[in-house]
Amino acid sequence: RAEILDNRIGYIRLGSITPGNVAELDAALVRFTGSKLNSVVLDLRATPPGSEFEQTAEVCKRFCPKGKVLFSVKKPNIKQEQILTSKEDPKYRGILVVLVDGDTAGNAEVVAAVLRTHVNALVIGQQTKGEAVEFADFPLATGKLLRVAVAEVALPENVTVFPGGVKPDLPVDVTQEDTDKLLKLELEKGVGEFVFETERPRFFILLPASARRSRSS
Questions:
Q1: What is the per-residue DSSP string for 73-141?
Q2: For 177-196, what is each residue's pLDDT tens digit?
Q3: What stretch of H or E contains 110?
Q4: pTM of the model
Q5: Which of 32, 34, 29 is nearest to 9 (CA)?
Q6: pLDDT band for position 98 (50/70/90)?
Q7: What distance in Å separates the CA atoms of residue 188 and residue 194, rounded to the nearest whole number?
Q8: Among 56, 71, 85, 125, who pairs with 107 as Cys (CB 3.0-4.6 Å)?
Q9: How are beta strands 39-43 and 95-100 bridged, if at all?
C-alpha cells in the first residue's frame, strides 16, 4: 500500500518482501519523487517473517548509497558466506522513518537495521524479535521438529540482529492487539484518517488592563 499524506509525506506499507512488491515499491518511489516529497514512512509492521535475504537486499538498495556493503549472510562454511552490496544509485533520497513492532522479524528487521545504519533512518515502535537468521528443520524420532539457525545476518562492523533484535530510536508502547486492529482498518480506510488529529479548540481569557498591569509588575 502506498499513499501521499497531506501532500507532503509518502507512506509505504511493504507487506511481503517479494519481487512483485519490490516492483510496486519502485512505482511508489517514482511517484513520491515526482511529487517532490522530502520524507517517507516505511511501515514494516505487516511484513511476514522470512529469510529471503537477496530480496531483502533489493529493498535496501532502493534507499542506500551505491557501493555500500548492506549486510552479509554468515554460514558455518566461510566459503558459502554471501556479501550483499548496493550497486545502483538509490531511488529515493530524503528523510526516512521506519515503523516496526514486536512481531517484526527476519528480513523486515534486517531492512530496518540496514536503513538506520546507511541512511540514518529513524526507527519507531517496539524492539523486534531478533530472528534475522536462516533456519533448518530436523525431524526428531518423537515426530517433532528441531529448528536450528544455520546462517546469520551481520551488518558492517559485525553488528548483528540475532538474537537481540532492533531497538527502536523512539519506543512506542502499543499492544499487538491494537496494532493489528489499526493495520486492518488502514487497509479499509487508508492511512491518513489515523495519522492526523483534529486540532482541538483553544480558549483564551481576556483580562482587564488593570489586571494585566498587576500581573506584569
A1: EE-SSGGG-EEEE--S--S--SEEEEEE-TT--THHHHHHHHHHHHH-PEEEES------EEEEEEE-T
A2: 999 898 898 888 888 888 76
A3: helix 107-119
A4: 0.84
A5: 32
A6: very high
A7: 12
A8: 56
A9: parallel
